[in-house]
Amino acid sequence: MKKLKHIMVAFMASALMITSFGCADSEMHSGAEQNGSQTTSSATVSGNGASTPQDNGGTSSAPVDDNDSTQADTSDTGTSAPVGENAHPGDTDSTSGPAVSVDTPDENDDPQESTSLSVSYTIGSSWEDGGKQCTQIDFVVNNSTGSDIGYWKLSLDLGQDVEVMQIWNASAAESSGSQLHIGNAEYNGQIANGAETTFGCILKTNNAVQNIDITSDGQKVSTSVGGSNSSNNDNNSGTSSTVPQDTLKPPAESDIEVTGKYGLVSDCGQLSVKGTDLVGADGTPVQLRGISTHGIQWFPAFANKSVFKYLRDEWNINVIRLAMYTGAGEGYTDSTKTGIEQTVQNAVDACIELDMYVIVDWHILQDQSPQVRKTDALRFFDYMSEKYADYPNVIYEICNEPNGYASWSGDVKPYAEEIIPVIRNNDPDSVVIVGTPTWSQDIDKALADPLDFDNVMYALHYYAATHTDWLRDRLKNCYNSGLPVMVTEFGNCDASGNGANNFGEAKKWLELLDSLNISYMNWSLCDKAEAASLLKPGASPTGGWKDSDLSENGIFMRDWLKYHD
Question: Is 386 a catalytic residue?
Fold first, then answer.
């Protein structure tokens, strides 16, 4: 065995090894996180499977944009309905899973049973930083071993010195030179037979990453270009669907004029909340209609002035939501704060220059309760609200999606009662949006126990293929009872972010929101290979997109925002 390994090493320039192990019965998490790219490769490697009973729903209870945490709703309506959020790269929850010690293969290890795992990787967006190349690479691991597995480990050798900038859905330990050793995150080590999980990373290298060879137990196996799995298809959706041709019709003349109801800052001025309405400086109702970025730490290339201008001029939007993850392994509180903070500031400055509104989103998700990172939130919002106190463009969303154990009265409301005064001390007039429990779906809990502040709105999030009449009824009931609501995130697919789009339900939602003058932002501005993305992999991060650059969701949302009044 030693001799064979030494022979194979002599032929290898780069290596990727996966070994998987069985585990005891526990809940499975299989993410669907992929970013788009120009290069996709796949390979078959060996692994060791062990059969254990697993849930195999095809979604991640807590993924990395993004894949969902689906639960049953137990609202006062008495109707049980699935709920969940489109979770994003690096997202986790409190479910069990074995911790993984990331180590290197040992020549004295016992031989493993040779059973197949399928591995696909996608080389995605890249940009220059300090004379080096930053590249996002996304991996899909599919278990076709015939048995369930409990955890996995891998080694990467890119053939050049490499630095890990960010990693999600996995843990990493870097050794010397070009070697990286990677293991599953706590929540996605278990993969049922026939299921898959994903992870991704941003690496910094001297030269562009061209390809990654695959080895198993030190033995190189063949790779092929274009061998992606089924979730990375042309329309970025697990199931094909088409945009209904009779849904949207262009106006007789030009695009909707960018004034009034969908106006920019120079039209509407400082926004405030009056009853259930968002209103401009003159008291006229204003509706914000726009786009949410994906996590800016994973897709910083799309948070720029050029793409915002294109969306403003060609898609008729007036707001950008900046999703800044707080944790997830590479979010604000787990990374170099100054780098992510600067990305936010640059994007806010771009929106100000473009006369647009901008929502600064403290994107809690894996944290579950906003209390977990409250100290950082107090510092962040104090700094940002002082810096932008004189700009009516800026709106603050202080907690994205409380979930899990987080309750309204026990967690979210007390948190908001500390954060809002900090913002008000610097910027007395700004609008503040507060997320609600169960991935910002339990707005009825806020209605029963509202905050005692002016200019506050409550966040509702939905994914049209999952959240249907039962959640629309909840919205209508809360609205009719006087609760001011803003939909700061929605998708037209299911809550995993990667299921089929349901444009029939999407139209029902958008028509309702327009009729109630409720503002909304679509998830998400990125080129990740999933149904919720606006762009196909490899689309330009500066705008100017053709139909061939847009996903199904991108085509639908462009036409709705541009043509639908």
Answer: no
